[in-house]
Specification:
This protein has two domains: 2-174 and 360-376, Rossmann fold; 184-356, Glycogen Phosphorylase B (Rossmann fold, 3-Layer(aba) Sandwich), CATH 3.40.50. It is an alpha/beta fold. The radius of gyration is 21 Å and the shape is globular. The protein starts with a strand and ends with a helix. The strands form two sheets. A seven-stranded mixed sheet has the order 3-2-1-4-5-6-7, with helices on both faces. The protein has a six-stranded parallel sheet with strand order 10-9-8-11-12-13, sandwiched between helices. The longest helix is centred in the first third of the chain and has 20 residues, at 70-89. The chain has helices at 16-28, 54-66, 70-89, 116-119, 126-142, 151-161, 184-193, 214-223, 226-231, 245-256, 268-276, 292-299, 312-316, 328-340, 342-356, 361-376; strands at 2-6, 35-39, 44-45, 93-96, 108-112, 145-148, 168-170, 202-205, 234-237, 260-264, 280-283, 304-307, 321-323.
């Protein structure tokens, strides 16, 4: 079975969709009946790439920001290159792992990670929303099967687009093996470099953008008693996104006083150590199709404070504390509880480790390969 797999998400620093594409493609290469070729914007290849440095992603973002219609031009060129590769390779099936499928004269599978640009359009750049509105639904309608990261997203796709349930298969994401429990000795080198102490900081991970709701995290942290903040700084990890001015204004005095640390983008091994060394993860996202950072914290035995909406309860279960993402006071109370109730934190940690074992990239790859076979058998 010869599969065309869009690997362009691997050409940027690997955040959520990039991690999905990387681990899924790596797993699919071990399926004996699959011949997987990845499309890298200009050509097809068999090697699974691992992202570009953050600087490259930043330059690409600047081009999109300042060059008129840059996405349209890029999309047109990529479609031409894709078509050329398809003619040369005679693929049996095409999988689009990142929402926007190219035109393809054959069976296709599309992964839908969420519908956030519909539910929360104001949390996305306008150009992204325009691209999603133009290209997403035609690819969705053409697909023989639709994969979602969660049951929640499956319900969303049915509700918004009326796709029949039998055509949608939820396939949960997996946990990267690098995220595992680590003691203070194992995290010391990384944490010392960032002037952090094992088990004594709150951690927020994600691209700094409105949907991740970090502004509420910062506001809630500011409500904690001075003694708690003095002992437990707030550490923020992730690429800088868009519409961050308000959050940066709130953060400025906390950073100046040493109560908040902004680490930016971290490589996986470094991120794993920072995650494993945290007191708790704080992740009150407004809307998630899955939520990899809380799962990665769970794999490290670090309990998470998450939103009680979208897919997050489906992933976290009873291994953390959940709150209304817009209730600053409730989030602050949950953070204080994590800081002052070590017994509860230990109990949640134990549950998290058990639950995290059920999410594997091997399972994700196997279920995706089964979806390919189903699509080729004419499922509609």
């Amino acid at each position: 079975m010869k599969i065309a797999f869009n690997g362009t998400a691997l050409l940027s620093p690997l955040t959520g969709v990039g991690q999905y594409a990387y681990h899924l493609a790596s797993g699919l290469q071990h399926e004996p009946d699959l011949d997987l070729l990845l499309f890298y914007a200009s050509h097809f290849g068999r090697q699974v790439g691992a992202g570009t440095p953050p600087l490259v992603g930043t330059l690409r973002k600047l081009v999109r920001q300042w060059v008129p219609h840059s996405y349209e031009v890029s999309r047109w060129m990529q479609q031409r290159n894709f078509d050329r590769g398809v003619r040369a390779n005679r693929f049996d099936l095409y999988h689009e792992p990142n929402f926007l499928a190219f035109e393809f004269d054959g069976p296709s599978v599309v992964t839908v990670h969420d519908l956030s640009w519909i539910r929360y359009p104001h949390t996305h750049p306008a150009e992204r929303v325009r691209a999603m509105e133009k290209y997403f639904e035609p690819g969705l309608r053409r697909a023989r099967l639709v994969l979602t990261d969660s049951e929640f997203v499956k319900r969303e796709v049915i509700e918004v687009f009326g796709i029949e349930s039998a055509r949608i298969l939820p396939v949960p994401l997996g946990l990267d093996a690098v995220f595992k429990p680590m003691n203070a000795h194992e995290t010391r080198a990384v944490l010392t470099a960032h002037q952090l102490k094992h088990g004594e900081y709150f951690l927020s991970v994600g691209t700094m953008e409105p949907r991740k709701n970090m502004e509420t995290t910062v506001a809630a942290y500011g409500l904690l008693p001075q003694a708690v903040r003095a002992r437990h700084p707030l550490v923020i990890v992730g690429l800088k996104g868009w519409r961050t001015t308000a959050m940066e204004n709130v953060l400025e005095p906390l950073v100046a006083s040493g109560q908040a640390r902004i680490l930016g983008y971290l490589e996986r091994s470094e991120l794993a150590a920072v995650t494993a060394g945290a007191l708790a993860m704080v992740y009150p996202s407004l809307y998630e199709g899955f939520g990899l950072p809380p799962l990665e914290a769970m794999g490290c035995g670090v309990p998470a404070i998450t939103s009680n909406v979208s897919s997050l309860p489906e992933v976290v279960g009873d291994t953390g504390l959940s709150v209304d993402p817009l209730d600053v006071g409730a989030l602050a109370a949950a953070m204080r509880t994590m800081a002052e109730a070590p017994g509860l934190r230990a109990e949640l940690s134990a549950r998290a480790l058990v639950r995290a074992r059920g999410f594997t990239w091997q399972r994700c790859a196997a279920e995706t390969a089964a979806a390919y076979r189903l699509a080729l058998n004419g499922a509609r």
